[in-house]
Please model this.
Amino acid sequence: MFADRATIYVRSGKGGDGHVSFRREKYVPSGGPDGGDGGNGGDVIFQVDEVMNTLADYRHIRKYRAEDGETGGKKNCHGKNGQNIVLKVPLGTVIKEAESGKVIADMSGDNRRFVLLKGGRGGNGNQHYATSTMQAPKYAQPGQPAQELTLLLELKVIADVGLVGFPNVGKSTLLSRVTNAQPKIANYHFTTLSPNLGVVDLDDSRGFVIADIPGLIEGASQGAGLGHEFLRHIERTKVIIHIVDAAGTEGRDPVEDIYAINRELESYNAEIGKRPQVIAANKMDAVCSVEDSDPLAALKAEFEPKGISVYPISAISGQGLKELLYHVQDMLDQLDQEPTVFEQEYFPEEEKSSDSDAPFTVEYHEAADEYVVEGPRIEKMLGYTNLESEKGFTFFQNFLRENGILEQLEQLGIQEGDTVRMYGLSFDYYK
Model:
């Protein structure tokens, strides 16, 4: 079965605790501190695998954990860093926070590798806390806790054009005729049980990717038929080819069919309903000439005044397909060529660092001539924030300002160029 959704639990590695120990040397009764730092916990990383095309692997294994960092040791021995866990997903996978449904990352475009959760930073050993006034510190920093999230993975295929229409109108036949795709074709409803992709190659043109979206019927957006399982796959498409049975071989009204499917698209996502469309009036070779009955004329009279072109085709014989495809290519050429990428809405760093009740202190240490900011809230923020990234550093600056830390430092008389220490992090203060 085609798997394009999966719910999984992920956890980064916990940082190893710093170690408390003192040198023991011959003829040196009381050596200095030599406790090593704990290792960093492993990260949770998502990476695009060009070979994968479903999320089936995540239907069987639902929990993924990165390795914890090891505790520091004696003689300044650094604890081993925990191994990262790399989760491979197909191109086009959208990673969401399961409860809110907000997008964390879209694994498409240039985003082929994404660090979702940072492992906890290892704690400093007691060697870092020796000062001129406290030469035997018995404190070591604990490792930062792990992060955890429940994720919803959704595969949204990457195609330029989406084929929509009621079952058995000829979508799969059209796809097999104009591309290298080989979908299952039969004369009964719901033959196609998964999205099919194919590449259209045109002379003197760049061509495009087309996707057959199965199972659309009335009520699909509310769960009827199979369409609700696959509507997500047209969210990236730029143009929609709406295929109808112009011959009415099953007694359906092609005009009403188009309106019915469009209502489902708009109900699912209003933006999809606004996408440019072209109508492919299929099975023209089966249209019977009946007086006062011309389905093609009815389609053109209804939709061409609204700016929607109608092309008579026969997917079986190939009639009219070339004209239809070149028109679709012209439509694509007039549109933005940038791929559709879903913007990030959920930021794990901010969510995990927002514990406003956790205490912190801001003090001036005269002996060391430095300002010291410490406390559980500070430890959490440092543990979850990647200061090497632009986003992480911006979040760090906002955290200092929004929590009143900068204000407290100024009240203590801090001047530009003075040193500020937050556990193992030291930096010069500048406005």
